[in-house]
Amino acid sequence: MASLTKKKSDKPSLLYTAGESFLHRANPLTSLCLLLWMLSAAIVLPTEGTATLTLAAIAVALVTGVGKKALKRLLITMVPIGIALTVVHGLLIDRQDFAALGPVQISASGLDYGLRVFMRVACMLMATLLFVTTTHPADMLKALDQRGVPAGIGYLIASPLLLIEPFTERARGIRDAQRVRGLNLTGSWKARAAALPVLLVPLITLALSDLDHRASVLSGRAFRAKPHRTVINAPPDSTLQIWVRRLLLLLAVLQLGLPLLWRL
Amino acid sequence: MLAVENVTFAYVEGSPVLSGIDFSASKGEVVAIVGRNGAGKSTLLRLLNGLYQPAEGRVVVDGLSTSDTPVHELAQHIGTVFQAPEQQIFNATIRGEIAFGPKQQGLSGEALDKRIAEVLQRIGLPDSGDEHPLDIDASARRLVAVGSVLAMQPPILLLDEPQRGLDKAAMQRLETIIAEEKARGTLVLLVCHDMDFVARRADRVLALARGVLSADKLTAEFFTDTALTEAAGVETPDVLSLSLDLGLPPCLTPTAFTQAYMTRRVGGT
Amino acid sequence: MAPLIEVHDLRFRYPLAKAPILDGLSLVIGEGERVAILAPNAAGKTTLARWLAGHLPDGALKAESGFVAMEGRNWSEWDVAERAAAIQFVGQVPSQQLSGCAFTVYEEIAFGPCNLALPEAEVRRRVDEAMVVCNLAHLANRDPFTLSGGEQQRLSIAAALAMHPRVLVLDEPTSNLDPESRDDLIAQIDKLPGGLTIIVLEVALRPSLALANRFLLLDGGRIVADGTAGEVLNDPRCIEALGMTSIAAAMAGLRDAGAWPGDKALPLTLAEARASLGVQHARG
């Protein structure tokens, strides 16, 4: 039974990919500190630095077996951002170094600025992807519980992830119920916009009634009744990891703080 | 009126939820669809109203193939009441809820008012037209959902567990509606777990077991064949069991039982 | 039997409602009783269930008069953890009984005991036990929200049982189940420890006959009948509100035709009818 219960549920709405890599085995709080350090680094590093960090994160993703899922999301998000940044900063915003390139005016400093923003966003996104693909939210909750973080905060993290599927399911149910009553959702944009309230009103009414129900279900099951909850299958932790976390947090703070001090 | 021709359907390719479903039904019939949870009843319902398309075979509703007709047009020919009426209620008044379908059909003015008044009467809420549909109790809300479909006067009615949670008065109203619809030539299909209800109201039973049609029989024939009821995971209605225990002909309703019992007594056996 | 729950002259009206939904209702339930509260639609069945389970009063939703007490103490004096360990309520819509905090069936059942800060070994013992009773072991790692309605219903009962309550309140527990799963659940409820008090609220007569040995009829905001199945289901007010079981209706037909003594109680179930008509089960 014990081995059975340690298996994690696979939810299609989660980006989490099961695995045995060092990141999968790391305490979720350690992964979280790593994420925070990378985010802070992405803010302060120059373009070369963010590019290196992004490449390193991609390499780690590939090693830990989450590369495919993470890269897919990275590309889907970054390609349109890259195009937009190039157009806006390279071509549209009037700069002093505007040079003619065929029919358009292009700015090298604009492109440079665009690239810096692009790499910074890519770095932050890749860091986040690395975190969510290797950390199961259930483990994150348990790690927070174990640290005595109020259960309400855990609930705020878990419930959107858990409720997105039933919510989508219900939206589909409502759409179907209205279509079989003759609602035309294939017509013009105007007709579709007019149909919106017909779909949204039941969705909202039901969501509100759910909130009410859930509140009484939670108190019925003693949620937040005691200062601490029991944590079962708690993710393992170690002294080494505790020190790694302290180091990462210290670095993150220093990285952000030092440049400020420097300027003073 | 309704023809389902050798229909197969799968959510995931290679593992069909329904296969080789073949039946037809005509005007004025009341047909019950029974089977275990997960046997494919809800899927079949969605194939009938066009929400799903068969992978193989075809479904013809009132002369229209569901593959060639948009769902909202099929809605004029086949009305569906799903299990959770809350999912379709969006108007601030019961009257508005019932008017929605007929308005989509282009009905207005006096004709619309007349239609609404008639439906409110039939569902037993003649004076509640201005109330909010969520302020009434769940069973009345189910009847509002039935009413909102009745208002479109479709020649085929699909009802998914319409009897659930109804008390005596609401149940009688529902049964009267089904009887009236049958009398005016509507084809009524019921998905239903309550076998007493099926025995009282259905002319014919379609049983689904593991995605295939395990029985297509007249109601009395279905319930007297234990092999069929067991395959579908349903029980024999109590009154029918008792009538067979007593050596009477199979009786589907208490009234039929009393008659059969008294006939035999008078006959002196 | 020692009184466990006492409802005393409870009068309750929802805000904006014209009339009170519970109107001077009084009721005493003893430890270990199996009670079915039968009620027609709109009679306040779910509202009464929520009062019994201590979910009401809640904020602005207060009694106009009266109270509900468990072991002699008004529910409002109980703290959340104490109450959760004493009584569990499972509502009608299975998906609405889930915590929304658990990624697996196992965690959903463990959710309540973990909130009570029980030792880990005790939590595991309770979860395993509840999974056996409700036949869920094979679903331990499934996402609760992807289960069928019937499975979710079993899960919500398992989650309630894992709290080791002294009272279990079930609102229409079998309404989402097909006949086989319904019979399974009834058999499982039947096997629950004898000391557990079970209160079932139902509109359907047949399933409640299998779940209870004391019957109450709630109508017009009060308990209007209280007794055995024979007493309550044959009460004209119950027949008026909820009708009769199909067997009782058939036997009433015989009585009206003079083929059954008018002063003898009508059989309610197939088994009772077979016994009183002296017939054997015709089919194996």
UniProtKB/TrEMBL annotation, chain A:
Location in or out of the cell: Membrane
Transmembrane residue ranges: 26-45, 51-67, 74-93, 113-132
Highest rank taxon of the organism: Bacteria
Keywords assigned: Membrane, Transmembrane, Transmembrane helix
Topological relation to the membrane, as annotated: Multi-pass membrane protein
Alphabetical list of CDD domains matching this protein: EcfT
InterPro entries in the record: ABC/ECF_trnsptr_transmembrane
Main location class: membrane
Entry's Gene Ontology cellular component terms: plasma membrane
Homology family: Belongs to the CbiQ family.
Protein name: Energy-coupling factor transport system permease protein
UniProtKB/TrEMBL annotation, chain B:
Presence of keyword Repeat: no
GO cellular component term of the entry, any: ATP-binding cassette (ABC) transporter complex
A GO term, aspect molecular function: ATPase-coupled transmembrane transporter activity
SMART domains in the cross-refs: AAA
One Pfam family of this chain: ABC_tran
InterPro entries, per database record: AAA+_ATPase, ABC_transporter-like_ATP-bd, ABC_transpr_CbiO/EcfA_su, ECF_ABC_transporter_ATP-bd, P-loop_NTPase
SUPFAM superfamilies from the UniProt entry: P-loop containing nucleoside triphosphate hydrolases (SSF52540)
Enzyme category, top tier: hydrolase
Gene3D superfamilies named among the record's database cross-references: P-loop containing nucleotide triphosphate hydrolases
Keyword ATP-binding recorded: yes
Name under which the protein is recorded: Energy-coupling factor transport system ATP-binding protein
Organism name: Kaistia hirudinis
Organismal lineage: Bacteria, Pseudomonadati, Pseudomonadota, Alphaproteobacteria, Hyphomicrobiales
From TrEMBL, chain C:
Protein name: Energy-coupling factor transporter ATP-binding protein EcfA2
Keywords: ATP-binding, Nucleotide-binding, Transport
Any single GO CC term annotated in Swiss-Prot or TrEMBL for this entry: ATP-binding cassette (ABC) transporter complex
Similarity comment text for this entry: Belongs to the ABC transporter superfamily.
Domain ABC transporter, first and last residues per copy: 5-245
GO molecular function, one term: ATPase-coupled transmembrane transporter activity
SMART domains registered for this protein in UniProt: AAA (SM00382)
Pfam family, one: ABC_tran
UniProt-listed InterPro entries: AAA+_ATPase, ABC_transporter-like_ATP-bd, ABC_transporter-like_CS, ABC_transpr_CbiO/EcfA_su, ECF_ABC_transporter_ATP-bd, P-loop_NTPase
Lineage, top ranks: Bacteria, Pseudomonadati, Pseudomonadota, Alphaproteobacteria, Hyphomicrobiales
Top-level taxonomic group: Bacteria
